[in-house]
Design goal:
7-stranded mixed β-sheet; glutathione-dependent formaldehyde- activating enzyme (gfa); binds zinc ion
Length: 158
Amino acid sequence: MSDEIFEGGCFCGAVRFRMRGRPMFIHACHCRDCQRQTGGPFAINGLIEADALTVTRGTAEVRSLPTDSGRPHDVAVCGQCGAALHSDYGRRDWLRFVRIMALDEAARFQPDVHIFTRTKLPWLPLPEGARVFQAYYDMMAEWPAESLARRSRASAGR
Ligand SMILES: [Zn+2]
Ligand SMILES: [Zn+2]
């Protein structure tokens, strides 16, 4: 994990957090759940070690949402404005999905893959050369070796 620090927070400013290092991998997820939860055409989620995220102001509330897979989806949100900060899919205590758009410098990140594009809005073009998947993808094939190594270190013994 690099030592780069990125700050982020909710819409109203009551909850602020810090991210240490860049995500291991970034999804633009075009599934219907992400569309409904964000109100946008897709969610941008950065997969990062849970201990890379620190709350620096306020307290995030955790809301559990149902998923098709039956695995829980716990979303950390601001209790005042409701903006989502990060998610925990499947209660893996070592992994978080940080909402890239909650970061102050969101434009410094771009998706590595576009997933669940079977429900992508038909009028929305994707960048030339984007890695696009109708549903999910093969992590071993798509993640860089360095990120796979980080993932196995973070998940070791869990
Ligand atoms: Zn807020
Ligand atoms: Zn999704």
